[in-house]
Amino acid sequence: MGLKKGKYVYIKLENGKYVKVRVLKGRAENSPDKYIVVGPVVKEPPLRAKVIDIYDLPKEVADRIMSEYYSLS
């Protein structure tokens, strides 16, 4: 799965790992439904990938991503 011109980004988690998420463009910025976890947890993202820190996201979005991350582990 490629990065597809901004459809996918990597979120840097608290423990130094990254998870791939799909970004839906038609949703509000603070909506938890905007980000969908699609990829496995990796130690290093691809070189050209856009990386967003988990702390830069709104709290409800970060909480949802972390809950989905723990369900993957």
How do the helices and strands line up, and which of them pair or pack?
Layout lengths: L7 E5 L5 E6 L11 E8 L8 E3 L5 H14 L1
Parallel strand pairs: 1-4
Antiparallel strand pairs: 1-2, 2-3
Description:
The protein is of the alpha+beta class. It has a single domain, classed as Double Stranded RNA Binding Domain (2-Layer Sandwich), CATH 3.30.160. It has 1 helix and 4 strands, in the order ββββα. It has one helix at residues 59-72, and strands spanning 8-12, 18-23, 35-42, 51-53. Strand 1 (8-12) and strand 2 (18-23) form a beta hairpin. The radius of gyration is 11 Å and the shape is globular.
Main traits of this protein?
73 residues, alpha+beta, Double Stranded RNA Binding Domain, four-stranded mixed sheet, 4 strands, globular
**Level of helix content?**
10-25%
Strand content: 25-35%
Distance between the termini: 20 Å
Radius of gyration equals 11 Å
Secondary-structure element sequence? EEEEH
* Strands ordered across the widest β-sheet: 3-2-1-4
The second-level CATH architecture is: 2-Layer Sandwich
CATH topology: Double Stranded RNA Binding Domain
The low-pLDDT segments are none
Overall pLDDT: 87
Task: Tally the helices.
Answer: 1
- Helix/strand class: alpha+beta
Largest sheet: 4 strands, mixed
The beta-strand count equals 4
Kindly provide the name of the CATH class.
Alpha Beta
How would you sum up the global shape?
globular
Count of individual domains: 1
